[in-house]
Amino acid sequence: MSFYDWFGHQIDIILLFVQTSSHVQISDVSFRNIKGTSVSIVAVSLVCSDSVPCQNVELENIDLKFYKKGKKTNAVCMNVNGSSSGVENPPSCL
C-alpha cells in the first residue's frame, strides 16, 4: 500500500485497526516486503479488539524510515499475536 505526501513523495505505513470493543477477529494477515518513508514516527500501528485479539499476524522484511534524518520510526501493537522476521525497521512490536 502506498501513499503520497504533499510533495509527491511516496509514504508507506502499515495500519491494522479494529474497534477495541469489536467482536470481529482478524487472523492470518501478512505484511511482507514493505520499504519506504513515513511522515509519521509511528510507521506501524496494529490495534485490535481487546475481546478478540488479532491472531497470526506476520511482519516480514519491513523497512520504513522516518522522512527526517536523525529520527527513527517505531511500531505500536495492541492485542495482536504474531511474529516478525527479516528486516525489522522499525523494531517489531510483535
TrEMBL record:
Q: Show the InterPro entries listed in the entry.
A: Glyco_hydro_28 (IPR000743), Pectin_lyas_fold (IPR012334), Pectin_lyase_fold/virulence (IPR011050)
Provide this UniProt record's keywords sorted from A to Z.
Answer: Cell wall, Cell wall biogenesis/degradation, Glycosidase, Hydrolase, Secreted
Which domain of life does the UniProt lineage start with? Eukaryota
- Report the locations given in the UniProt record: Secreted, Cell wall
Query: What processes in GO biological process is this protein linked to?
Result: carbohydrate metabolic process; cell wall organization
Single Gene Ontology MF annotation: polygalacturonase activity
Taken from the record, one Pfam family name reads: Glyco_hydro_28
Q: Which family does it belong to?
A: Belongs to the glycosyl hydrolase 28 family.
Its protein name is Uncharacterized protein
Organism of this sequence? Acorus gramineus
